[in-house]
Amino acid sequence: MNKLKRNERIAAMVKILSDYPNKLFTLNYFTERFDAAKSTISEDIVVVKQSMNKLGLGQVKTVAGATGGVKYVPQTSQYQNKKVLDEVCEKLIEKNRILPGGFLYMMDVLFYPAIIQKIGEIFASQFTDKKLDYVVTVETRGIPLAIMTAKALNLPLVILRINSEVTEGSVVSTSYTSATTGTIRRLSLARRAIKPGSKVVIIDDFMRGGGTAKGMIDMMQEFESDVEGIGVLVATKIPEQKMVDDYIPLLIFDEENECDGKINLYPNSQLVQNEKNSENLKI
After folding, report:
1. Spatial distance between the Cα atoms of 231 and 190, rounded to a whole number of angstroms
2. Which CATH class is domain 78-278?
3. How do residues 93-137 score in pLDDT, each as one tens digit?
4. Would you list the domain boundaries of the chain?
5. What's the pLDDT score for residue 67?
6. Res 117: pLDDT
7. Cβ proximity of 236 and 207 under 8 Å
8. Alpha-carbon distance 111 to 21, whole Å?
């Protein structure tokens, strides 16, 4: 391999780090990949670190020691959150999205990769300070959100099933009550899916009363695992008292203030630049 110039090494390094967020790369990896001295690679890392920080593109962290190295940690600013969440709001406030039961049709947005990748990074930014082992969701609409969050956190994704599959072997099942309909529902998960004593974060697409999230928490207790956080794309404003505490909604759906078919949906003010800049978007 021909020797690379500094700008070529830095471009390649940014690409590698950003493609594998939260993955630790040793200095030896880059010295061998670029056929360069450790001192040269260290200088390159400083440039990458300063540039990413200056432009608000996330953090490049170095870990000292024989087992250390460098990793890229996605980190979104409140300004970036507002830009992404406003874009999502604009798509979701289109007419005819309200479904029977007061739900919001979101499938087209949930399965749009460019949008979901950004949302996954916003979720990941809320949990980077926690030591986690898994990202957990329930099939099926929450899967795109959860897998992008798992990618940003460099964690495996665990999917709770509504109906168990014979291909998963022995499973653990639990029942929960839907806070919306009051019906009893069932969740199942393969016994080998999560190691006992793990720490997890739950990601889902929609929360009204929190029954599904409570069911997932109960399932984690069956595996003697702790839920360190809950993130949902959209949470309804009413009821204010959910069946779970300490959840992070990205968007708030205020059904009470709907009028003339207009959808009242807005970003969580705690995640965006300021409350004034998070004005409700209506059509």
Report:
1. 23
2. alpha beta
3. 987 888 887 788 999 999 999 999 999 999 999 999 999 999 999
4. 6-73, 78-278
5. 78
6. 96
7. yes
8. 21
Q: Residue 226: beta bridge partners?
A: 199
Q: Which two tokens stand for residue 92?
A: 């979701």
Ranges of residues in the chain whose predicted pLDDT is under 50: 275-283
pTM: predicted TM-score of the whole model, two decimal places:
0.91
Q: What per-residue confidence (pLDDT) applies to 279?
A: 44
| Contact between 46 and 240 (Cβ < 8 Å) | no
Give bridge partners of residue 104 from the DSSP assignment.
98
Residue 113: CB partners within 8 Å, gap ≥ 6? 144
Dump pLDDT digits (tens) for 108-117.
Answer: 999 999 999 9
Q: Is the dihedral of CA 273, 275, 277, 283 positive or negative?
A: positive
Instruction: Break the chain down into helix, strand, coil percent, rounded to 5.
Output: 35, 25, 40
Q: Which two tokens stand for residue 87?
A: 């874009």
| Distance separating alpha carbons of residues 72 and 17, to the nearest angstrom | 5
Contacts with 261 (C-beta within 8 Å, 6 or more apart), sequence order: 95
Q: What's the CATH code, domain 6-73?
A: 1.10.10.10
Cis peptide before 239 (omega within 30 of 0): yes
- Across the beta sheet with 226-236, the strand order is 157-160, 134-138, 199-207, 226-236, 247-253, 265-267
- Position 182 scores a pLDDT of 78
